[in-house]
């Protein structure tokens, strides 16, 4: 995602024939057409579906019934709130966990750097569903992890906070957030690593020469320079996490359903297409607004 | 307290390694449980050691069929997305033209959209068109969402290329076609390879978009999803472990080749 930043690749301007001027358009045509037909056009169809009324038996007609949006939001706002809450928490945890790892790879790993990078990338290739199912084993009731957390009285605190229930972690918010954090962690580590790696190590030396403590160096030099990685990492984590329904389904219970679960069941099981389309548009709108505001705030508009 | 001092000095390393352990832990569990002999249908708790599943990886009905289907889709999606994406990347980096901004946003948007939104909208298109859901709708969807990632990966590489190398080729009387095949493509190939690898991994592993647009066709992730309800056979862990090992070997080999090339370029 950091590569999205536009670097001006200045090319000498050549006088060119009409045929040559058409070259970029021919290069773009097939791919852009694909995106228009199978990405943009579907959005239009979904917009039209969201204002239809009817039923599967009688068929659906466009009746500009915008009420569906309000009804859908009113009925499912707990799932929306939960999605944003879980995705936000997971993103924050990813940043807290991912930063030291990215820092380790960029500055401390030395000749182990490639090995650590391979270990970060390789899990991508094992089906994420299989890995998510493995968390069922790890967090199983009475398993070593739950046992250890119980013995350390961590579960007492988390139960009091409502993150876990009694002596179990599975089928609680904590399990879902743990799964989300795990699933999207590489999407945080890789952009962070890329932007940390670009930092000139002489800047660290200079900071040290100017009597900055390691903490000050980090706060004033390293962290600000890694902002592009922080921004793209948080986006790459938050956006997919907000629409995810796999973790809530496999690791949570009915009390942890996210908006993705609702969209999925409305579309594929209940077959109430207008409501499903409206829900999916509301999610898209929320995410796009949040992302735009965030990018403005973070001050890296050249990202898009 | 020397231990505390050591801990404080190596705090970053310890925290980083802890995160790495968190990342690897499920893979380790998948590997260990591929040697389990489960009691019932579910392979979630350890019973006893056995290599049965490794000796008979395709012993579960329909699993290897779904695996081969996923591999085929991933292969075609990779080819499609890599060709289309590379063309777009070259056009965007090498040429100035109108509508560049609009095209950049069109490429960025699929990456900035929750997958479930794209999946649902594509399904409404297919339903409206009356398309039969199956292999082709999955392939269309996979090429669509892999495309942006390939463009991004290839663009990064093409942007860092020195345009003077191609000018030099032209000065040496190489035609445009010759310049492209002998100079441009070899230099861009690491970016194209990275994009293709990413596309393959994304397509092979995709569940959300496939789940919406597959109809009754079962890809490997969908088989795993279904088995989570019915009971997970140990063979799933065998496939997961094999994939992990293959990935480590492939990625490590790639790294070794890259380092070798860098070293020989220096020498």
From TrEMBL, chain A:
The gene is potB. Pfam families: BPD_transp_1. It is a multi-pass membrane protein. It comes from Streptomyces hundungensis. It is found in: Cell membrane. This is Spermidine/putrescine transport system permease protein PotB. The keyword Cell membrane applies. Coiled coil: none annotated. Belongs to the binding-protein-dependent transport system permease family. CysTW subfamily.
